[in-house]
Design goal:
The protein is of the alpha/beta class and 212 residues long. 55% of the residues lie in helices and 15% in strands. The protein contains eight helices and seven strands; from the N terminus they run E-E-H-E-H-H-E-H-H-E-E-H-H-E-H. Strands 3-4-2-6-7 form a five-stranded parallel β-sheet, sandwiched between helices. It has a two-stranded parallel ribbon with strand order 1-5. The structure holds thymidine-5'-diphosphate. The site of thymidine-5'-diphosphate has 16 residues, from helix 4.
């Protein structure tokens, strides 16, 4: 059974489509926590560890086909390594982990391909991480068209998933919202079209309550 990690630290994950502003918000939260004297581990999936960076290169930049089950297992392998070697030790030390993406991304993205079943993907990740779930997951919800406009403005080459069609990103968005509705205690859903400062204040309010 999945359960919050019984560790002294606090674990916050950010989720949302590409271009929803996760990195900006994670950075603002990290700064605020550091100003309050907290030790912060800022990390991400895929690619939060050395093994994870190798896996990230395959899942995001491999040119040939990656079979859906292979892709799901690669994300799960990255996650297993990340939890075991970085996230759990930091939480055990009482630190705050601020993380871009976690298992909800696998359910939303790999499930949106329509080939794999969402529950199976979730169970795979929970097996990989021995059932670890964050204390709070911030979902930055944004219409795919608005997200795409932001990515275009950034002028960076698209990775394999960013290059997917608009319809795929609609399914990803719907899947995230469904996950949030199923676990209202863990999720904080915010409208990512609001000004960054307002979103950051809402995130801080929730995290402040967690820190006590
Ligand atoms: P991200 O790190 O947000 O990209 P960027 O470097 O552009 O900020 O995410 C990389 C991509 O990985 C993103 O398109 C979503 C995808 N992804 C999955 O498909 N499944 C997963 O389990 C995870 C963690 C990410």
């Amino acid at each position: 059974m999945a359960a919050p990690v019984p560790e002294p630290g606090v674990w916050i994950t950010f989720e949302g489509g590409d271009g929803s502003g996760k990195t900006t918000q994670a950075t603002l939260l990290e700064q605020w926590l550091r100003e309050r004297g907290r030790t912060v581990v800022r990390t991400r999936e895929p690619g939060g560890t050395e093994v994870g960076r190798l896996i990230r290169d395959i899942v995001l930049h491999h040119r040939g086909e990656v079979a859906p089950r292979a892709e799901a297992l690669l994300y799960a392998a990255d996650r297993a390594q990340h939890l075991a070697t970085l996230v759990r030790p930091a939480l055990a030390r009482g630190e705050v982990v601020v993380q871009d993406r976690y298992l909800d991304s696998s359910v939303a993205y790999q499930g949106a391909g329509r080939v794999l079943d969402a529950d199976q993907i979730r169970d795979l990740s929970l097996w990989a991480t021995e059932g670890a779930l964050p204390d709070v997951t911030v979902l930055l919800d944004l219409e795919p068209a608005a997200a795409r406009a932001r990515l275009d403005a950034d002028d960076k080459p698209f990775d394999r998933l960013e290059a997917e069609k608009a319809e795929f990103h609609e399914r990803v968005r719907a899947a995230f919202l469904q996950l949030a509705a199923a676990e209202p205690d863990r999720f904080l859903v915010l409208d990512a079209s609001r000004p960054a400062g307002e979103i950051a204040a809402a995130v801080r309010a929730r995290v402040a309550a967690l820190l006590g």
